[in-house]
Amino acid sequence: MPKQTIMTHAADAAGADVAVNGGALTLPPEPALRAFLREFCASRIALAGALVLALVVLAALLAPVLSPQDPYDLAQLDVLDSRLAPGQASSDGRMTYVLGTDEQGRDLLSAILYGLRISVTVGVLSTALALAIGLALGLLAGYAGGRTDALIMRVADIQLAFPPILVALILLVLTGPGVGNIIVALVAVQWAYYARTARSAAMVERNREYIEAAVCLGLSPTRIVLRHLLPNCLPPLIVVAALQIGSAISLEATLSFLGLGLPVTEPSLGLLIANGFQYLMSGKYWISLFPGIALMLTVVAINLVADRLRDVLNPRLQVNP
After folding, report:
1. pTM, two decimal places
2. What is the DSSP track for 247-276?
């Protein structure tokens, strides 16, 4: 029996989805999602960061269920329980404060869980809005070119010339504290990063053959941008967005630490750290330490995942884990 026939029957008997090419078995291409997960999980550090990030997001989502106390309900707070050390019981003996309490008598574990919820929500929403605005403007500038490109990029250059925290401080001084206002401030300092990244990717893709073919076929500019240009510009923007989530959370914590972020009744991690800053030298370290550890773990986990995404989505940057 010919060799090719034998190999074909062997493949059929094994039930494998293979093709015979010149007497050799050719496996089908690996699905894109499976290949992405395999490359991502090849790095143990990135996998650990993804696990920590998943736990943080899960804790933020389930904060009302996991928290032994609602830190926003003033009726549940007792001034006699203020600044209790970790492991001490409440004045009425009904609960034990695992991580201690702050100066308002809030259970720090509950306050951290709710603070994570606010910080992660603010970081994700501000990044998503900034990505949408920057992506739209960047694609418009990169595809249209000319005066439109010059105008958008000069505005972005002016935005990037100022330190992000300075722009955010000015906007919050004008608008006042609040979740909505701080999201607007974070969007204002982030959109230019996405606009420049999208514009660079669009200018590279605009000169490729598939764009020229779409133009020759008479497709509308809107269809070319949305159906052909946009999908090929997304990988670098995904990496930038992942990194900017961590930056947005850090910036929000900084603004809240300075007293210009969220109101006192809705403390985020930055405000929790600020509440205990004055007690650090008096031995009551836990008021600032535990929120600081939660903030550090969140930002580090996001950065580890973003770094691995950069390596996986850009094969030229891949290194051995």
Report:
1. 0.81
2. HHHHHHHHHHHTT-SS-TTS--HHHHHHHH
